[in-house]
Amino acid sequence: MTIHTETEPHGGVATLPEPQTRAHVAVQTVIEGKRGADLLHDPLLNKGTSFTEKERDAFGLRGLLPANRTTLEQQVDKILSNIRRKATDLDRYTYLVSLQERNTTLFYRVVIDNLSELMPIIYTPTVGLACQKYALIFRRPQGLFISSEDRGRIRELLRNWPRTDIRMIVVTDGERILGLGDLGSCGMGIPVGKLSLYTACAGVPPEQCLPIMLDVGTNNTALRDDPLYIGLGQERLRGPSYDALVEEFVSAVQDVFPKACIQFEDFGNSNAFRMLSKYRDQVCTFNDDIQGTAGVTLSGLYSSLRITGGALTDKKFLFLGAGEAGVGICNLIVQALIAEGLSEAEARARCWLVDSHGLVTKGRTDLAEHKRPYAHDHAPMPDLLSAIEALKPTALIGVSGQPASFSEPVVKAMARINKRPVIFALSNPTSKAECTAEQAYTWSDGRAIFASGSPFPPFTLNGKTHVSGQGNNSYIFPGVGLGVIASESQRVTDEMFFVAAKTLASLVTEDDLAMGRVYPDLQRIREVSAQIAVAVAEVVFARQLTRMRPPSDIAAHVLAQMYQPVYEEYV
Ligand code: NAD
């Protein structure tokens, strides 16, 4: 990939105008013919007690609803007070899922207006727990389950989905769910949660989203032994049969949903890298764990430069974890460094990886293909601390899923080497974070520039309150997805993640940095995603990755696509 720096018009972008209310295409098409209980049971159309008198007459709803009408705002208040009364986050999750299943508009109105409070419920960390308990809390399928027994009929299954204009698919095979490992079919919570974020954070219309579980079995024996387990109780399919299933799936999507982008999500890394390199130049696809994580991390590093001073080219990056996230981030950093004038070899020499066997070096014979570009000439280093002492990195990035691995000596070493050490503990969920915000600030005397994959509450040390940023790819993928959909791109390229990272960094304010946050306030996520989408769409049109004619005003075109959760009048 070559990154063209002229496609970075987004440093300090002016605030975009308020999006226009999007004509709710699905409503226009689906309303015809739907009446009575069918209307109430269609979550995309249901308004519950907000149906107007005219609608109640026109659609045979009399008697099916109590007499008193409520407004959307009243419904939101009721839902919020119910959520806040629940005893646990898992209860809140199941309550919100059941709301999503019965009233899409109300679900998104509640979530969008209370994103900081509810994102940790519908996504990490609570979604991790929900996946672990998925068999117990499963009530209704919220997406498609395609199993290895469906070989030869995947097109048919896709056609069973009740909607046809699908633009964004998130698919997982459940092998590496967050940092929790193989959860098999119970991993379905992740595509469902991610697509909720596409809609909540970027306004991708919910009727255009499709979560898919590719159930190829599980190697988690506890799940297989559980009579309530919802998936295939067999060992994971591997080898040519696995590849053939994925191939049939990808090709069926091209036939049935030709405008859909496929996001591969939480696959094990041996499959994730292979699938990405196989399909990225054939169809519209990306892997968020590899590319989205890279975008959000690069953005955090750009913002950190505003605190540490210096240029990206002066810095050295050490990763704990050499999987999808670690190598994906390295790949994008390398592209960013090349764009700033380094050679590829010089750029790679800035990125170092530590995996479960120590520092990734040339002398090792046990390295998977994806780690080899970052295997440098160096004496073996058995652990993270010795690697830090030897390499003296400016930034330490945790993507290992190993809690407590950024120990006190590790953080103290980073703080001794650097005036403002950059420490990102990106592993999810919270229980897997390499260290907590409190630990990073305490052990560095408040000097760490800290971000984490799952949120931590603000922490006060010696009178200063540190508000750490959430280095989560949810800052990146919704906007990238919206840009890809709005421009009908036929490919997803690394350049899009590069411009997304730059755009995100440009939206971090001085106030954010002053409180220690290298990402914008989450409450601004829709504005952030819209700006990222515009930057991505500009790349699509500039590189001619679409058959669509460029609109005269790309920003207005993107904003017009964004779903707004409002009740439309049906009569
Ligand atoms: P992966 O399975 O591809 O890679 C995990 C890596 O960690 C492997 O290289 C493995 O060798 C290494 N590892 C395991 N045990 C180790 C140990 N004791 N010491 C050092 N390294 C060890 O998984 P991934 O997709 O790269 O994800 C890793 C973690 O990053 C997960 O917890 C995931 O939730 C998190 N993640 C966060 C974000 C985000 O947005 N914040 C995005 C993607 C992934």
Provide a descriptive summary of the structure in words:
The chain has 571 residues and is an alpha/beta fold. The chain has a domain at 142-283: Malic enzyme, N-terminal domain (Rossmann fold), CATH 3.40.50. Helix content is 44%, strand content 9%. Helix 22 packs antiparallel against helix 24. Nicotinamide-adenine-dinucleotide (NAD) binds at residues 176, 178-179, 269, 289, 293, 296, 320-326, 354-356, 399-402, 426-428, 432, 453, 471-473. Nicotinamide-adenine-dinucleotide (NAD) is lined by residues 176, 178-179, 269, 289, 293, 296, 320-326, 354-356, 399-402, 426-428, 432, 453, 471-473.
Describe the structure concisely:
The protein has 571 residues and is an alpha/beta fold.
Main attributes of the structure:
571 residues; alpha/beta; Rossmann fold; 7-stranded mixed β-sheet; 5-stranded parallel β-sheet; 25 helices; globular; disordered N terminus; binds nicotinamide-adenine-dinucleotide
List the helices and strands and how they pair.
Elements lengths: L24 H7 L4 H5 L12 H6 L13 H14 L3 H14 L1 H10 L1 H8 L3 H7 L1 H4 L6 E4 L6 H7 L7 E5 L16 H14 L6 E7 L5 H5 L13 H18 L4 E4 L4 H11 L5 E3 H21 L8 E4 L3 H16 L4 H5 L2 E5 L2 E2 L24 H8 L3 E4 L9 H10 L4 E4 L11 H7 L5 E4 L6 E3 L2 E3 L2 E2 L6 H10 L7 H13 L3 H5 L10 H18 L11 H7 L11
Helix pairs in contact: 5-6, 5-8, 6-7, 10-13, 11-21, 15-16, 15-22, 18-19, 21-24, 22-24, 24-25
